[in-house]
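Archive record
______________

***
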Amino acid sequence: MIRSLNVFIDELNVERGLSTNTLSAYRSDITQLITWCSERKVTDITALTPDLVTAFLASLYKRRCSGATIVRKTTALRMFAAYACREGMTSVDFSAALDTGTQTGRKLPQVLTSAEITKLLALPDRNTHEGLRNAAMLELMYGSGLRVSELVSLKESDLDLHSGLVRPFGKGAKERQVPMGDASKDCLEVYLRNSRPHLAAGKPAVPNLFLNTRGGPVSRVWFWGIIKEYAKAAGISRNITPHTLRHSFATHLLSGGADIRAIQEMLGHVNIETTQRYTRVDVTRLREAFNKAHPRA
């Protein structure tokens, strides 16, 4: 089955141009099924059955895997099953019994309030080169709704400060243009004028926009840690990740009356269904406000 998996991943890479992270996740998800089956003496793809795959997913529920994790694994298994049937590797759609309603259990995105965002963005010390860099990253990530992978991969050439646009490369190496607010633009101008040259001084030149103290590109893991530190300092007790800023960007735009199609384009979502989950967040907030304020709630 490993050979079938390798061919499947290669096809996804060539035909769909999926991101490295997505391909890695799909490979990991399907490998987990293959390992689970091997432990039960099932090693050939023709021996996979709907009951067997359902039992595998049931084992994940028992291990208390999150709903989002199981949804992703279900998606990967459906794609793998469709490919295997199409290529004649098996005559049985072993994903046939998987619950198509699994996604309804997906958790709503966690977002910050406007007040929390204001606190978070005020924390970096903009009088230091590192602090100004951190502020520029936070401003741009929240101000334009970037993924953390897009943020740390940005080049100087991806910015158009005159037009107020940033050009991130999203999943599948797809480029899009996203507006940036005045706060992001102003902070980036100062960073590019003062702090980036200082961080780059005396080190081998790299094209990345955001540099660490050694003059190299900052990493996703490092930025994750920075978010955690600032969230703690801001008194935010919830589990905040870089993606929380992206969720907050979308939800605050929607609350402010932005068109969902425009939000979809700015986020770089292929399917509108992915963007529509933010309408659920907005409706949830309206319901909470109603329940707290209305005497007949």
